[in-house]
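ugh ok so i messed up the first submission bc i forgot one of the chains. this is the corrected input, ALL of the components this time, i swear. 455 residues overall. if the numbers dont match what u have on ur side tell me asap before i send this to the collaborators (the ones from the other lab, u know who)
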Amino acid sequence: MLPPSSFLLAASLLAALPVNADGIYTKKSPVLQVTGKNYNSLIADSNYTSIVEFYAPWCGHCQSLKPAYEKAAQNLNGLAKVAAINCDEDENKPFCGQMGVQGFPTLKIVTPSKKPGKPRVEDYQGARTAKAIVDAVVERIPNHVKRATDKDLDNWLNQNEERPKVILFTEKGTTSALIRAMAVDFLGAADVAQVRNKESTSVKKFGITQFPALVVVPTGDAEPQLYEGELKKQPILEFLSEFAMPNPDASGKAASSTDSKAKTKTKSKASKPASKPSSTPDDDSTPDSNDEAEVKPAPVPIPVPPLPTLATPDSLETSCLAPKSGTCVLALLPEQGDALPASAIDALSNLANIAHKHAQRGTHLFPVYAIPDINSGSQTLRTALGLEDKQKVEVIALNARRGWWRHYVAEDDFSAIAIERWVDTIRLGEGEKEKLPEGLVGEAEKAKEAEHDEL
Ligand SMILES: *[C@@H]1O[C@H](CO)[C@@H](O)[C@H](O)[C@H]1NC(C)=O
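and heres the new structure output, hopefully the right one now
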């Protein structure tokens, strides 16, 4: 027999160890795990509504809440944040105290207010079912959606000229959680309105024949575009990201976990083209080889067309360096001796493949051009961006309208995977962008526009 004191010690160690080591939510859980340290950046400063569970792993009610809470997290994916904080962790204890937590679990709904970083925090007292939680949170998703009518739509379209406009045509009088969440995704970057089917002038003007319909009116003179994909958060977000930069936490970590809910079986790599190809082993649990076979377009032997070439400074300016040009990807070709170096050939063919793949799938990709060295515009760009080694091919992305550019830094790795990953970060608006130096974006165009404005 052990002496009682060491028995107690052993027992308390056993009880304490697993508890402190991990909370009740695993890494794969759709519930976002926060700490006292990152609570402000993830929750309090967010433009999204959140619900936060303050819990202790040893608490029975916390454990029984877990399935409902995870289900709520799946249902709210892309709409609001569902988070949990383990108040048993020493580093979180002071914070839980500060938040006035007196029992476990405590659920608080955190709603952004007009003052950034000063959200409204309320105790959630409702039923501890997924549905009740979802309803309470959805009700508090901020509404930045303009309800436009025939009378004021034009006026609204003419406001904030620098922002693209997104219009949902709908038969509904209410503003759905999805569209409200989308307006949050693009807060400050794109304006969102909802127009009812009975606003016949507007409906006619945009040629809408079916409801709901989602239309983007890009900035500048570009034609409005009808979104033709599924009315679901992730594909809409990707589509709109071609026109405006979503807020930093828009795509959310939960993006990959929701899909598992409604369509566990069809969860396919193709449905999340933006995630790093094959580098995330954490969702391999289901062998989806069958699904993939269904989802992949059949390998039709259409030859991949080469990238379009911009051979003159004018064409470069019109396509990518006009004040209202959107994102372009450019391959600046090296000085050409007898033949292009292998790196340039790889870059060109892999970029052409990516562009071709998107064209075949019908997904929107920004234009990709090859810029030969004889185009003096290429020299101007290289000099301005500090890419002066003319023996090297350089791949860059730039957006004249928004004034940023990005360099594909490759150490000669122009492999398909590496380039596609880079292109995907741009599609998602991720990664560091640099400021486009002054004087690159068409001065001639600017002058012309000033005239237009006066007319
Ligand atoms: C919140 O919205 C503002 C625009 O109103 C935006 O500038 C900011 O980046 C957003 N914050 C986050 C954390 O997304």
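quick check: The radius of gyration is 26 Å. that seems consistent at least. Residues 342-361 form the longest helix (20 residues).
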